Amino acid sequence: MDSWRPMDRAPHDGRWIIAINRHEPDLRAVVRWDPTRFGDARPWHVASCEHGHFNDAFTDWMPFPTFPECENENGAAE
How does pLDDT run across 67-76, given as a tens digit for each residue? Predict the structure, then answer.
């Protein structure tokens, strides 16, 4: 699995990532950069809610792990 990276290096291309909440470090959130979603200064948007978060709301991030390959009915990887 990938290691945690500082938020200043998080992708700003709209992909979903996993992030650590600054004020509650035990919480992880699925977020993405989307400054135009609501036209506000809170560009980080959490998948489970409708409001944005400021740039400094999260401390670290990591990409989602790759999915394992699935086997088809014949036992071959897809």
Answer: 888 776 666 6
Angle at CA 9, nearest 5°, toward 4 and 30?
60
Q: Contact at 8 Å (CB) between 47 and 37?
A: no
Question: What are the residue boundaries of the structural domains of the chain, listed by start?
Answer: 5-63
Instruction: Compute the 3-state secondary structure of the chain and give helix, strand, coil in percent, each to the nearest 5.
Output: 10, 30, 60
Give the sign of the dihedral formed by CA 32, CA 33, CA 34, CA 39: positive
The residues that bridge with 58 in the sheet, in sequence order, are 21
